[in-house]
């Protein structure tokens, strides 16, 4: 028989190994090569399964690409999927615990016992070995705690509500994404429309400025008139450069939203825009009613209130006595045992007496959580009610601003046409030409900006109401099918107006 080392020696060795492991644990910063390789792999993963852009994109195609390929939206969808997976896993907390155990025991000497006489206290000379030095023990036991069952049931209900909250957050993120995409699309359209005109007008302005410098140098004109001329040209150049800076980021912002390669030019199809007043035809009362049942923030607060109430029930369940049922099958290889295999059944009732002291405080805490959740729900409903009115008024203001910007652009366009005719007869100077073209470009830019604001205001109103296209699972739909679904869902305001008329007729 091999003699085992003393217990103190074994303990000392274990402590030494533990200290050595702690000393060798050092921070390991990421290397530049690792970061570079991971960055390349992430860029490849970001473009995985993304259909390439093969032609000009319409507004519906841009929104469809954003819904299907936007990276932030993918993260929201994964968060929702994770929440549902957590809900599925939480349901197993209600099952009994089935525990399988196996162990090996070894000692360096025999387990010997003696007996003591109860009358005179003398020890018996007989010594008994009651256990083998080496033996294995195995068991399979099933236990079910009724308290854990109740707590697990309410915990599973809470996790189900958290999964639904993740779905509402995904809806809200989708509304915000569609709103941002609309704004970025019209900014990119205006950049596509005005880029060539801005560059051409800038070249003319540079030529006019160079002519003014030459005229000043050669003293062909009054110095004061020449400086005033240069000042006006420079002011027009400043406006043109501001417009160019305003438009320079539009393509990048749109590419980031639809997960297109950064730097790749994106051709866009400008839709025929007619000011849509269908949203304003829906009565305010109908908008309020729709928002109360469909707004993502309100629905999230309803689920939070349910979670708070289930937390109260969990707290109350923990205050009950714990009843545990157990059944197990055991086996021991010890030859000194008469019955090496045996079955064991047990019922155990336990109660934490400190619950009598802490129970009322725990219940008050849970009830305070319910009151807070209810107050947040009421506050959110009132806030959404105000948001409905604000979003509707903002849409009215944005449409009015667009009409005004469109009228100004129409006038500036007609002025530009007249100036072009004068240019053909060489009546106007380069300064007049630059000034008129700059004014026309600025008016057209403001028209597009007002148009983008009108589109954003309408999308904001849709998000406040919780109105969204019925698109189903984006991952299972092809890009073409998703585009067609978005194109056919334009009549959402018409459906709401028809609903209002139907309710009014009842």
From TrEMBL:
SUPFAM superfamilies: Outer membrane efflux proteins (OEP)
The keyword Ligase belongs to this UniProt entry's keyword annotation: no
Lineage: superkingdom: Bacteria
Gene Ontology MF term list: efflux transmembrane transporter activity; porin activity
Gene3D superfamilies: Outer membrane efflux proteins (OEP)
Locations listed in the record: Cell outer membrane
GO CC aspect terms: cell outer membrane; efflux pump complex
Protein keywords: Cell outer membrane, Membrane, Transmembrane, Transmembrane beta strand
Keyword Transcription regulation found: no
PANTHER family to which the protein is assigned, alphabetical: OUTER MEMBRANE PROTEIN TOLC
Protein name: Outer membrane protein TolC
């Amino acid at each position: 028989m091999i003699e085992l080392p003393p217990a103190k020696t074994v303990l000392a060795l274990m402590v030494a190994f533990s200290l050595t492991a702690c000393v060798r644990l050092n921070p390991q910063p990421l290397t530049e090569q690792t970061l570079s390789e991971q960055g390349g792999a992430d860029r490849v993963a970001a473009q995985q399964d993304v259909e390439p852009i093969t032609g000009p994109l319409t507004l519906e195609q841009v929104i469809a690409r954003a819904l299907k390929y936007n990276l932030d939206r993918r993260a929201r969808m994964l968060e929702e999927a994770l929440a549902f997976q957590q809900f599925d896993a939480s349901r197993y907390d209600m099952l009994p615990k089935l525990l399988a155990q196996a162990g090996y025991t070894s000692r360096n000497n025999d387990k010997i016992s003696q007996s003591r006489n109860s009358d005179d206290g003398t020890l018996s000379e007989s010594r008994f070995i009651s256990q083998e030095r080496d033996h294995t023990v195995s068991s399979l036991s099933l236990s079910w705690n009724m308290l854990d069952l109740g707590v697990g049931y309410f915990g599973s209900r809470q996790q189900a509500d958290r999964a639904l909250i993740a779905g509402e957050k995904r809806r809200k993120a989708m509304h915000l994404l569609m709103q941002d995409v609309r704004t970025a699309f019209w900014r990119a359209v205006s950049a596509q429309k005005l880029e060539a005109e801005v560059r051409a007008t800038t070249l003319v302005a540079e030529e006019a400025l160079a002519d003014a410098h030459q005229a000043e140098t050669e003293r062909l004109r009054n110095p004061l008139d020449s400086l005033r001329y240069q000042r006006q040209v420079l002011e027009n150049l400043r406006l043109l450069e501001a417009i160019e800076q305003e438009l320079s980021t539009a393509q990048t912002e749109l590419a980031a939203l639809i997960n297109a390669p950064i730097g790749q030019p994106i051709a866009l199809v400008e839709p025929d825009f007619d000011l849509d007043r269908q949203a304003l035809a829906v009565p305010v009362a109908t908008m309020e009613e729709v928002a109360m049942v469909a707004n993502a923030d309100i629905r999230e607060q309803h689920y939070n209130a349910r979670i708070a109430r289930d937390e109260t029930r969990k707290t109350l369940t923990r205050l009950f006595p714990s009843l545990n049922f157990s059944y197990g099958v055991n086996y021991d290889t010890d030859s000194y045992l008469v019955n090496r295999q045996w079955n064991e059944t047990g019922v155990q009732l336990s109660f934490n007496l400190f619950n009598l002291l802490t129970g009322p405080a725990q219940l008050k805490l849970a009830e305070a959580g319910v009151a807070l959740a209810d107050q947040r729900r009421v506050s959110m409903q009132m806030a959404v009610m105000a948001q409905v009115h604000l979003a509707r008024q903002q849409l009215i203001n944005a449409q009015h601003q667009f009409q005004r910007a469109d009228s100004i652009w129409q006038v500036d366009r007609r002025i530009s046409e007249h100036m072009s005719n004068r240019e053909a007869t060489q009546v106007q100077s380069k300064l007049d030409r630059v000034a008129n073209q700059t004014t026309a470009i600025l008016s057209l830019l403001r028209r597009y900006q007002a148009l983008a604001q009108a589109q954003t205001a309408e999308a904001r109103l849709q998000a406040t109401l919780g109105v969204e296209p019925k698109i189903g699972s984006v991952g299972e739909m092809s890009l073409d099918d998703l585009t067609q679904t978005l194109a056919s869902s334009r009549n959402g305001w018409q459906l709401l107006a028809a609903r209002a008329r139907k309710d009014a007729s009842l």
